[in-house]
Each structure stands twice: as C-alpha cells, then as structure tokens.
C-alpha cells in the first residue's frame, strides 16, 4: 500500500513539473516585452536592453526556465512587471480571500450535497429523487456566469437584499464579510453542489446493486441502515474524487465568479496580470492553480485507495 501511495505522489510531482514547463512555454509566446511594459513605451532602447539583462530576459529560454523553477522551489514567486513589487507581497491578501471563500463554500456544499444525495438514493424514483435529479441536471447545464448574473439581477438589483459587488477593505468582521460575499458564495455553492449531489446519489445506488446489499435487503435490514452503514462507506471513493475535483475548481476555476463580483481574489489577480501582460504574475498564479488541482486529485486518489480494502490489500 505504501509503495502505491509513494508511487502516486511521485506521479503527482512529475505532473507538476510537466505543468510548469507548459505554463512557462505558453507565457513565453504571449505578446509583449516585460521590460518594455515596466519602463513604458517612451523609454530608450538602451534602457530596455539594460533592464532585460537585469531581469535575465536576454538569456536562452531554457536558462530562464531553470532560473524561474529554481526560484519557485525556494518560495520566490518573482517580481511583478506592472508594479515592481514582489509577487508574494501582492498575492498574500488575495490568496487569503480565495481560501476564505473556498472554506465557506466547502463547509456548506459538502454536507448539503451528501444529505441531498443520500436522501435521493434512499427513495429512488420517488418525488424527492425526481426533484433532486431534475434540479441538479438543470444546474449542471447552466454556466456559472449565468447563475452569477441572474443572482445579481434578482437579489442585488431588483430586491436590493445584498451588495452587487464584493469589495473588501480588510477591516470587516466575519459576519460582515459573509454578508458582502453572499452572492459569490451562494453562486459557488450552487455550482459545485449539483455535481456532488449527483455523484453521491449515483455512487450509493451503484453499490446498492451489489449482491451483499441485496442479501441484506432480503434479510429485512432497513434501507436507511443499509445506505448509511454499508453503501455509503463503499461508495466513498467516487464521492471523495468528485469532492476533490470541485475543491480544485473552487481554487482554480472561480475566475468568472471573481470577475463578475469584483472580488479581490487570486483568480482576479491573474486576470489583471493577463490584461497588463504581467508574465511573472500569470506564471505564479498558473502554478498555484495547477499545483492545487493536482494536489487535491492526489489526495482524493490516496483517500480512495485507503477506503477500498481491495486496493489496500492487493493480491
């Protein structure tokens, strides 16, 4: 088992390395010169050339890559081209804002999804199951930006219940912050819960067709007890995987939601970097997003292995 876990950790590290190559290659082909952007269009070519040499941009691409990846391994994310400040100083509050929203959405969506998924699985084909299935299918089909815009129009514009934009100044208390962020939080809960509810229901119903479950039903064991004590534990692997996928989405896929609600998170910081051709910012945010995604998937894979006796004790 430990050999399998270490092997998957090794595969995850290799994936992160491959992703770093792809991110560096894609940012290199973007238009714009980092030195020219920092100094402005009216700067002399000599000044631009001097800054390019200082920033190492005159080096071959492979030298630049190994210098960049070496700095990343030591925790140095680089210097922003637009502002001239270190990316660590610019990213601190923003990554904290993204983690805050991710934690709140996870705290709400995971228990809610498990509850509704199990409720639908207990009475398959019933009214509750039909309502939950239809609602989740409809929500999955609707893009997240459309849900965000509709909620903004109804709750913020027409009913004036919550603020339309999620601007923070850093002095808000917990509940005041929740009030300001109610629209992005609700939007993300709706988006990620639909997938988790469907996977919970499908995973439990798939296990319910197993021979040992059918034997328990024939013995008269209550369906509620079968689902909660037997089916759920055996379906936990796929459920954990879809939860991990949605957590990765919360960290790396909230770009549209943060942009619509003007929330100062990590995704919006990356958008600003793309707009200003701030390549170091784009590279740093891309690595954070992709590494988080791979780490969440790796944790889900290991959790699935530990929850499955056949994988823990392979023949």
CATH class of the domain at 93-269: Mainly Alpha
What can be said about the biggest beta sheet?
none
CATH topology of the domain at 93-269: MetI-like fold
As a percent range, the share of strand residues is under 5%
- Class based on secondary structure composition and strand pairing: mainly alpha
Classify the helix fraction into a percent range.
Answer: over 70%
Care to count the β-strands?
Answer: 0
CATH architecture of the domain at 93-269: Orthogonal Bundle
State the separation between the terminal residues, measured CA to CA: 11 Å
So, the CATH homologous superfamily of the domain at 93-269? MetI-like
Shape: globular
What is the CA-atom radius of gyration, in angstroms?
24 Å
How is this structure best described in words?
With 315 residues, this protein is mainly alpha-helical. It has a domain at 93-269: MetI-like (MetI-like fold). It has helices spanning 2-28, 34-39, 45-55, 61-73, 87-122, 127-141, 144-158, 174-180, 182-208, 211-218, 223-234, 236-252, 255-260, 266-275, 279-307, 309-312. The model has no long low-confidence stretch (mean pLDDT 79).
């Amino acid at each position: 088992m430990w050999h399998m876990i270490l092997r998957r950790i090794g595969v995850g590290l290799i994936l992160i390395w491959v992703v770093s190559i792809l991110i560096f290659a894609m940012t290199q082909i973007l238009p714009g010169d980092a030195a020219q952007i920092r100094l402005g269009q009216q700067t002399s070519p000599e000044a631009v050339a001097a800054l390019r040499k200082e920033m190492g941009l005159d080096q071959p691409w492979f030298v630049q890559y190994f210098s960049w990846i070496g700095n990343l391994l030591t925790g140095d994310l680089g210097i922003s081209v637009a502002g001239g400040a270190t990316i660590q100083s610019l990213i601190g509050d923003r990554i904290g804002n993204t983690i805050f929203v991710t934690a709140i959405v996870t705290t709400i969506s995971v228990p809610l999804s498990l509850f509704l998924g199990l409720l639908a699985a207990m009475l398959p084909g019933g009214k509750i199951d039909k309502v939950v299935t239809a609602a989740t299918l409809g929500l999955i089909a609707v893009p997240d930006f459309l849900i965000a815009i509709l909620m903004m129009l109804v709750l913020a514009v027409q009913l004036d219940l919550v603020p339309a934009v999620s601007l923070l100044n850093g002095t808000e208390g917990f509940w005041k912050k929740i009030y300001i962020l109610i629209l992005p939080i609700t939007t993300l809960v709706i988006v990620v819960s639909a997938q988790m509810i469907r996977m919970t229901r499908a995973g439990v119903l798939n296990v319910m067709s197993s021979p040992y479950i059918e034997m328990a039903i024939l013995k008269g064991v209550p369906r509620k007890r079968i689902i909660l004590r037997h089916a759920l534990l055996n379906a936990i692997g796929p459920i954990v995987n879809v939860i991990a996928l949605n957590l990765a989405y919360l960290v790396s896929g909230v770009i549209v939601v943060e942009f619509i609600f003007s929330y100062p998170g990590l995704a919006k910081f990356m958008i600003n970097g793309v707009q200003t051709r701030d390549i170091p910012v784009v590279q740093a945010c891309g690595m954070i997003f992709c590494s988080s995604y791979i780490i969440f998937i790796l944790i889900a894979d290991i959790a699935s292995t530990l929850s499955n006796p056949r994988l823990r004790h392979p023949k």
